[in-house]
Amino acid sequence: MSVRMMELEHEFRYSFEEDMDIVEMPYKNPDLCMYVVVPKVNFLNIRNKIESVVDLVGKVGASEISKAMVYLPKFIFKDRTDLKEILQTLGVTDVFSAGDADLTKMVPAGQANPFISDAIHEAKIQVDEKGTVAAAATGASVVVESM
Questions:
Q1: Do 30 and 55 belong to one domain?
Q2: What share of the chain in percent tops pLDDT 90?
């Protein structure tokens, strides 16, 4: 399998741990960075060891900044989540029922029983040598029953 790679020579903070390597990749805005974790063993074991972003910052933050060449695969990650079931599990149910939803201010007068039939969230992140591009959108379909 062929994988498109990116390479970047820059000054990085990095930490070589027993079971993972961590690189802090800064963005132009000095308040932002991306942490890349490369497991040396099973990924699930690593995920369980990293409790939070604070753990990553602690491991890498104490290291010196050094010039290094980093090779990473370019990647695009896309996700689509159906929010209807999630919202209903959280107790948001009336808005999905024609008889219970009160969305009348969203439709012209005379149209009855508007309700949300579907709600989705989509996200995309693309990482390459130029940087990171991220986008997200949330949408809902409103259905109007005729009187």
A1: yes
A2: 35
Domain boundary among 23, 54, 73: 73
Give the tens place of pLDDT for each residue, 12-64. Answer: 888 887 777 888 888 888 888 888 888 887 766 666 666 666 676 777 776 77
Q: How does residue 146 score in pLDDT terms, banded at 50, 70 and 90?
A: low
81 and 27 fall within a common domain: no
For the chain, how many structural domains are there in total? 2
Q: Which of 41, 36, 33 is nearest to 15 (CA)?
A: 36
Please report which confidence band the pLDDT of residue 147 belongs to, taking 50, 70 and 90 as the band edges: low
Q: Are 105 and 81 in contact (CB under 8 A)?
A: no
Q: Which residue from 21, 59, 58, 25 is spatially nearest to 40, judged by alpha carbons?
A: 21
Q: Are residues 55 and 89 in the same domain?
A: no
Write down the H helix ranges in the chain.
Answer: 43-49, 53-61, 83-89
In 3-state terms the chain splits into helix, strand, coil percentages (rounded to 5) of 20, 50, 30
Which of 73, 94, 118 is the C-terminal boundary of a domain? 73
